[in-house]
Specification:
2 copies of one chain form a homodimer.
Chain A: H1 16-30, E1 41-42, H2 44-51, H3 55-67, E2 71-74, E3 78-81, H4 86-110, H5 113-131, H6 135-152, H7 156-177, H8 182-198, H9 202-223, H10 227-231
Antiparallel strand pairs in A: 1-3, 2-3
Chain A binds a DNA duplex through helix 3.
Chain lengths: ~240, ~240
Amino acid sequence: MAIGAKLRPISESFTLKDHTFKLLRAAILEMDIYSPDTDLRLDERKLAESLGISRTPIREALARLAQEELVHIVPRKGVFVCRKTREEILEMVVTWAALESMAARLATVYASDSDLLALRKFAMQHSSDAVRADIEEYSDANIKFHQKILELSGCSLLGSTAEGLFIHMQAIRRRAMGEGDRALKSVVDHMEIIEALLARDADLAADRVREHTMRLHVHISKTWVRLETIGSLKIAVG
Amino acid sequence: MAIGAKLRPISESFTLKDHTFKLLRAAILEMDIYSPDTDLRLDERKLAESLGISRTPIREALARLAQEELVHIVPRKGVFVCRKTREEILEMVVTWAALESMAARLATVYASDSDLLALRKFAMQHSSDAVRADIEEYSDANIKFHQKILELSGCSLLGSTAEGLFIHMQAIRRRAMGEGDRALKSVVDHMEIIEALLARDADLAADRVREHTMRLHVHISKTWVRLETIGSLKIAVG
DNA sequence: TTATTTTCTGTGGTATACCACATACCTAGA
DNA sequence: TCTAGGTATGTGGTATACCACAGAAAATAA
């Protein structure tokens, strides 16, 4: 066989800036953003040095992150990971509810029975995690459940729009999950959602998804009173 | 009076890249993107020369536009304004419906009577444009109507999320408005929406907004068959 | 004439140098 | 000791030079 017969293009049109963008995005996702002692500062030059590249691709990646409102760039001050205030988080939950509710509505029309049954199977498999109070595990499954509904809508823009909120929703859901008996209630909600989907009842499915997410909204607005002061800690600049 | 008593900061932290970003965004908004003979190419160097600045701030502005999916950047090929395919446009309409529907729901709770009455006055003022078949005029008013509902929700994230779709929705609505007697039907729809809002009927308002926007969806999917081929004209690079 | 190779030109990608400004620290005068 | 004012340092912002690659044009071989 000739040399190169099975070689693929070097991941066609690989660019450092794209790579850096994904890298930083993932890094921010893993950060515990809301821990008060986390350093929110990103130093272009240090990043450049540790990645072994120049500042240019890093700056373009940061520009994109800023567009996603994941970081704040303050001229001649610095680049900071963006903490959200309590109000911003509440708005994200509302927006998420809007998107997922529409997704559920569409899913009653476009999702196949086998997809929905697979979703039910998935939800049932992980319900035991909630019962065992295995919060970490269940929280991940919970997030995946909601993403799958977005997928099943067949409207990819709903999912990709929600993805911008996802990075924060993940942190929010993880935090909220451990509070009260939300995990157990969540299991019940999920099952009712799936039943509505399988019944192909668009209005009911949309309502249940929206109300489920809005319960998170109510929970947060009741419970998280201190976040706002933390959120505006160092960011209140420009 | 002491010197500087009335001086403001020099437009706090102005940067060329921000300015360029807004400039290009507005320029793209004004372009007739879907005209087949429009040049979709953006040349970094020519832009730099005509703006009298270097490529660097332009590149960062382009990076942000790419994040918003307003342009495609293809390494060593060029930067192109992003035409949307028919399917993508349909998804944008769905997503817009999701956001505005939720906004209407919230508006029944949070909008004041005076705000809603002002909205009704605004809609009635411009209904004559529709009757006179003054499409251009009415189309603008129509778009503003929908934006106001997003505002009245009190949830600014709904509006800012929708804004990313706005640039395309504007072109879509303008184009669709002239087709059939959509303008007249639109007037009726709007009035029914306002009545539902004033009646503080959350479900009804949400339903009417969603159905109104989804009528646009149906109209597009029925009428615009040729767009897809145009859309994927030069962009199908990947 | 046709097919192939080579060269040239233009593109975005990257690295680097330098700038203006913000900040913290230092120093001299009260 | 305390307070201006100056100075040093570090930040993101910008300009520039050069690179690798794509694609077209031109040159060459069949």
